[in-house]
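Handout, page 2. Input:
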Amino acid sequence: MQGCACRGRVPSCPTAALGAAEPPCATRDSSRTRKKVQRERGGLGTAAGGSITPCRSQVGDLPLPHCIALRSEPSGMKLLACGAFLAALAAVLGHPDPALDWHWQLWKKTHGKEYRHQKEEEKRRVTWERNLHLVTLHNLEHSLGLHSYELGMNHLADMTSEEVAALLTGLKVPQQRNQTSTYRPMPGSKVPDTVDWREKGCVTAVKNQGACGACWAFSAVGALEAQVKLKTGKLVSLSAQNLVDCSRSYGNEGCGGGWRTKAFQYIIDNQGIDSDDSYPYTAQDGTCHYNPAARAANCSSYVELPYGDESALKDAVANAGPVSVGIDSSQPTFFLYKAGIYDEPHCSQIGNHAVLVVGYGTSDGKDYWLVKNSWGVHFGEQGYIRMSRNRGNQCGIASYASYPQI
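Output:
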C-alpha cells in the first residue's frame, strides 16, 4: 500500500497512522484493501458484534479525547472513523487553513474580535482552528449518542485551556479541606425534584468578569444577592469590584484570585457592600473606595457545607438559596460548552473556578446542577451551564460550597 494524502472522501486509514503528518491510507483504486477492511469490521455497521466507543489519541501536542473508534469484538481491531478530521488537523497545526478564511472572518465579526498585530492574529487563528476540530469531533460523537452535551465556537474559542485558566478563573483553594461544617438538613425537610431560583426572581443578570481572575467575587455577590432578595424582596446587583479592591487584607488578591468565605468575612467586618451601580466593575485591580452611603447589603455570617456532599448541597440550594461553589473548569470542553448536561469524566475535584449553583433538576434521566457562570451570555446556555449531579462529586462541585446569611 502506498502513502497518500487523505483528501476527498474519507479514506480507510489504519490506526497506526495516528500522529503522522500524512497518514498512510488506501488509494482510491485499492478496492482490495477496502474489502479487507470491511471484512475485519464485520461490515460497515456494528451489528456483527461491533460497538462504538470513545478513544483517546494525540496529534502533535494537541490531545484528542473525542475520536470515534469502531471496534470489532471478534478481531479486537480498532479502526478510526475520523481519519479525515485527523489528517486535516495535522495539516493545520502550524499554519492556518485557507479554506477556513471566510469562517474565521465571520467568527471575528460575530464576537467583535480585533488583534494588536498580524502575528497575534495568526497565533489566535491556529488556536481557533484547533478548537474548531475539537468541537467538530465532539459534536459528531454527540450526534451518535456518545455525549450528553454539545460544544460551540463561542467568544473564547481563540484561547487555549491554559489561557482560560490563567485569565478567566481565579479561585484560590485553601490547602486544607473544610472538616468542621456543622450544616445539617432540617429534620423532616422535603426538597423538590427541581429548583430554579431564577423563576423566583432571586438571580441577577449574567456578568462577564473579563480578563480578571475575579470569579470568586462574582460567585460571592451572587449568593448574597439572592439572600437580599429573600430578605427584603428587592433584587440588587452587588459590587464585585468592591470585593476585588477592598478585601486584600483578608487574603484575597483581586484579579489575581481569591476565596468566597474571605469575601463574606470582609462584608461582615465592613458592615456592608456597595451596589454595582455605585461601584461598577472595571475588570482590573483598583484602590478601595467603598462608600457606606451607597451600601446595598450586609452579611451577618456564612455557612460552609460538608466537603463533597452533594446531598447537603441539594438541601441547601432547595431550602437556603443559591450556593457559591468551586469547580474544576480546566478541561477544554468546559469553556467551549454550548448546551446540554456537562458530563466530563476527566474533570478533577480540585477547583480552579468559582461559580453559583442556582438550582438543580433532571433531564432525560440525567441529574444536573444549574450553574451561573461569569463569562458573559455567549458562554453555554445564555451564560449558564448544567453540570452532572450525583456523579461522584464530578468536577468537585460540592467540595467547597458555602452561602452567606443576613
